[in-house]
Specification:
By secondary structure, this protein is α/β, with parallel strands linked by helices. It has three domains: about 5-80; about 85-235, Response regulator (Rossmann fold), CATH 3.40.50; about 240-380, Ribose 5-phosphate Isomerase B, Chain: A (3-Layer(aba) Sandwich), CATH 3.40.1400. It has helices spanning about 95-110, 130-140, 155-160, 170-180, 210-230, 230-240, 250-260, 280-290, 305-310, 325-335, 350-360, 370-385, and strands spanning about 5-10, 25-35, 35-40, 40, 45-50, 65-75, 80, 85-90, 115-120, 165, 185-190, 240-245, 265-270, 300, 320, 340-345. The strands form five sheets. The chain has a five-stranded parallel sheet with strand order 13-12-14-16-15, sandwiched between helices. It has a four-stranded parallel sheet with strand order 9-8-10-11, sandwiched between helices. It starts with 6 loop residues before the first strand and ends with a helix. Mean pLDDT is about 75; it is low at about 1-80 and about 275-280.
């Protein structure tokens, strides 16, 4: 079943590929597992799972001893991936917590969903509250910072972020020192403010409440400007970037036609010559876009997909998965939060490739950013980045 890029359903168990007229809802069957061995081990007795099915089709055998069908109904599909915004200052006790609170309030007031906001500091050990004047200045704007506690900047937090907003140039330098590949998504917050104002926001720590109010107002102006760019940021974020070599060209064309027919925005990143091994332009284009958090997902199609997956995984931030069937496509998203799908034109017929892509795009990551698998990927990437 194909869902638009912003939607998915979490489930364990068989999946059926089909169609449904209203993409906001998926027909479902609720089942009970009877000690059935799942992908991550034995499911507990009477563990309920909601499984999407297509109209007039059943992905499991109701008479099977493994399942008991309880009900047929509809579920609302939640958004797949929020846009992650990280705001950075020095101590994470003045500017960045004020900006975090202001942006959250702005998003709520303007009814803009799907954006998660956090803040961090380059010179904090963590656990410190917001300063008194920060709390007072934000309280005047209807924002409560009393529960805020500082968080130190880390490679992991930067990897989480899709947009990084810094107060001063040395904050940008700290981010790029931790993760050079983060340059494309790292900005001075003043870039979104008034043209005549400075790009940097000075630290008000140790100054009067009037300075904090001025800082708050400057931050508000910048964040208002940022929000006006959200439509184009979201449009790019939801665009699927796809490339291929010569051998995968025909399959790539078929995938693009299918995805566009389903309403998906697609950016064709071209073709790399299959003879010249050094010509990996689409891998670079797709990989750097996805690895740099400029887009959620990418697809690469090669004669086998093996070389492209190896090359793509050399790019920081990329978690490329070579998938030859629907089950592996689902698992690569559910368990490993893969963000780039590699396909082999030699091993996949067009219809099967479409099923793999649909399953991959419609499956969400089932765990949190603390999942040991994904944390390990980030640690390895950081450890072997020449540091």
């Amino acid at each position: 079943m194909f869902y638009p890029p912003q939607f998915h359903v979490n489930f364990i168990g068989p999946r059926c590929i089909g169609s449904w007229p209203d993409p906001r809802y998926a027909p479902t069957r609720t089942v009970i597992h009877h000690g059935r061995k799942g992908r991550d081990g034995v499911q507990p007795q009477n563990c309920r799972t909601t499984i999407p099915v297509s109209q007039g089709n059943t992905p499991l055998n109701p008479s099977s001893s493994s399942f008991l069908v309880l009900a047929i109904g509809f579920v609302k599909i939640r958004t797949m991936n929020d846009l992650h915004v990280l705001i950075i200052c020095s101590g994470n006790s003045c500017r960045s917590p004020m900006a975090e609170g202001l942006l959250k309030k702005l998003l709520k007031d303007k009814n803009i969903p799907g954006v998660e906001v956090r803040s961090a500091g380059t010179m904090t050990g963590g656990g410190s509250p917001a300063t008194e004047f920060s709390i007072l200045a934000c309280r005047e704007a209807g924002i409560d910072l009393s529960s805020h506690r500082s968080t130190p900047i880390s490679h992991r937090l930067i990897s989480w972020a899709d947009i990084i907003l810094c107060m001063e140039n040395y904050h940008v330098a700290t981010v790029l020192n931790l993760l050079p590949s983060g340059s494309a998504r790292t900005h001075l917050i003043g870039e979104f403010g008034l043209p005549e104002d400075s790009l940097e926001i000075p630290d008000p720590v140790g100054l009067s409440l009037a300075h904090y109010r001025h800082c708050r107002d400057r931050l508000c102006e910048c964040l208002e400007g940022l929000v006006t760019h959200f439509p184009e940021i979201r449009d790019r974020w939801d665009t699927l970037f796809i490339g291929s070599d010569e051998a995968g060209l025909n399959l790539k064309k078929a995938l693009i036609a299918h995805l566009r027919k389903c309403g998906r925005k697609v950016q064709d990143c071209g073709v790399a010559g299959s003879i010249t091994a050094e010509d990996y332009g689409p891998v670079m284009d797709v990989g750097r876009t996805v690895g740099g958090h400029l887009a959620q997902f990418g697809i690469l199609v090669g004669i086998t997909g093996i070389g492209m997956s190896i090359a793509a995984n050399k790019i920081p931030g990329v978690r490329a998965a070579l998938c030859a069937d629907v089950d592996n496509a689902i698992l690569s998203r559910q368990l490993h939060n893969a963000n780039l799908l590699c396909l082999g034109a030699r091993s996949l017929a067009e219809n099967e490739a479409i099923r793999v892509v649909d399953a991959w795009l419609s499956t969400g990551y089932e765990d949190s950013e603390d999942n040991p698998r994904v944390v390990l990927f980030q640690k390895l990437e950081y450890q072997f980045m020449g540091r």
